[in-house]
Design brief:
homodimer, about 200 residues, Nucleoside Triphosphate Pyrophosphohydrolase, eight-stranded mixed beta sheet, three-stranded antiparallel beta sheet, 11 strands, about 35% strand, binds zinc ion
C-alpha cells in the first residue's frame, strides 16, 4: 500500500494513538487503513451410492498450485454467509448441484493471513462440469485420493478428518465432528535446531 | 474507495474479465481492489467455583453500542490464529488471564460483512481490569445476565447457546457443542408484508 484510497495522498506505517501495532495511515486525511485476514470457504461434496462413497476434487487451472487437486473453495465475498460462499464456490469451480450440511473444519493459516473453512455437502446428481478455474472434476473413492498431488495442506487435513469420521460412522463409532487446526510455518529457530 | 492504493489514480467500479461482480479497478495500473468480510473473535470467559458459575462481560467505552455489555471480542489481525485473536482481545478489553478452550460459536452477519466467532475460556484468576475500550468488567451469574443491554445479537445468541449447553451438562445431558447461526437483516419485502 502506497497511497490513501480516500484522498490519494501518500500513506506511512505508524502506530495510531491507542493502538499497539503499525498501520498504514494517511499523512493528509488521517484515515487508518486496516488490513485483516481473509476467509476461504469450500465444501466436501460427497456422492454415496449404497455405501460406495466418493468425494469430488477439482484440478486447478490457476496459480498457485496449477494442476494439483483441491476441494472446491475460494475467497468469501461481502454480503454472503459462510455457507453461501461455500455453495457459490462449489457451483463456480465444479458446476455441482449440492446440499450444504454442517460446518466440518476450520483451519488457520496465519502466515498467509487466511482462515479456511469446509462444509460437508451432498451431491444431488452427477451433472457437474469444470468451471473456468478448473481443468478437470473427478470423483475419488477413499483409497483413490491423490494424496501426493493435493494443492493445499488445509485440503489434505480436511480430507483426512473427513475419511476418519466417515469410517468411524460406518463402523457405528460416532458421527461427523467439527475439526479445527492451525497450519504453522516452520519457525526459523526450530529449523536451525533440527539442522544442528 | 476513490483512489488506487498502489498508484494513486482514480478507481472505477467494473466487473473484471472472468469475474461476475463489480470490483474497484484502477483506471491506470489495472489493480483490482477486492473487499472481503472481516472476522470478529472473542471469548466466553468463565469462573466456576464449586458449581457457582459466572460469565465475564465488558461494558463498552466505544461506539457502536457505547455503554452496553458484550463478551470481549474484536477484529482478528494478520499473522494470528483465531484462538490467538480471541485471547488477545480478552487481554486488551478485560485484562483477563484465561485459558482458551474449543471454538464454541460462529455467527454470520452478512449485511455488515462480518463473521463473529467465540471460544470457551476459563479465567485463571479474578485479577481483571477494564482496558481503554471498556468502562467496566463484571462477572454475571446465569440469572443476572443483562439481556436487554447486550450490545450485539451475536453475543446474546452465544450466551444463550452457552447457558443451554452448561445447564444440559450440569444435568448430565451432554457437553458443550459447536453452534452456528446467521443473523439476517429483516428484508424490505417481509417488513412491508408485516405492515400490510
Ligand atoms: Zn487520505
Ligand atoms: Zn493503480
Amino acid at each position: 500500500m502506497n497511497f490513501c484510497s480516500e484522498c490519494a495522498h501518500p500513506v506511512s506505517l505508524a502506530i495510531p494513538t491507542g493502538d499497539n501495532r503499525p498501520r498504514y495511515v494517511c499523512n493528509h486525511c488521517g484515515t487508518i487503513h486496516y488490513q485483516n485476514p481473509k476467509m476461504v470457504l469450500g465444501t466436501i461434496p460427497v456422492w454415496d451410492e449404497d455405501g460406495d462413497m466418493r468425494i469430488m476434487l477439482c484440478k486447478r487451472a490457476i496459480e498457485p498450485r496449477h494442476g494439483l487437486w483441491t476441494l472446491p473453495a475460494g475467497f468469501m465475498e461481502n454480503n454472503e454467509t459462510t455457507a453461501e460462499a461455500a455453495m457459490r464456490e462449489t457451483v463456480e469451480e465444479a458446476g455441482a448441484n449440492i446440499e450444504v450440511h454442517e460446518l466440518f473444519s476450520l483451519l488457520n493459516v496465519p502466515h498467509v493471513h487466511q482462515v479456511h473453512m469446509f462444509y460437508r455437502a451432498t451431491l444431488l446428481d452427477l451433472d457437474y462440469a469444470a468451471g473456468i478455474e478448473t481443468l478437470e472434476v473427478e470423483m475419488f473413492a477413499a483409497d483413490e485420493i491423490p494424496w501426493e498431488q493435493i494443492a493445499f495442506q488445509t485440503v489434505s487435513h480436511t480430507l483426512r478428518f473427513f475419511l476418519e469420521d466417515h469410517a468411524a460412522r460406518s463402523n457405528g463409532n460416532g458421527g461427523y465432528g467439527f475439526h479445527t487446526m492451525d497450519i504453522l510455518k516452520p519457525r526459523p529457530a526450530l529449523v536451525a535446531a533440527d539442522a544442528g
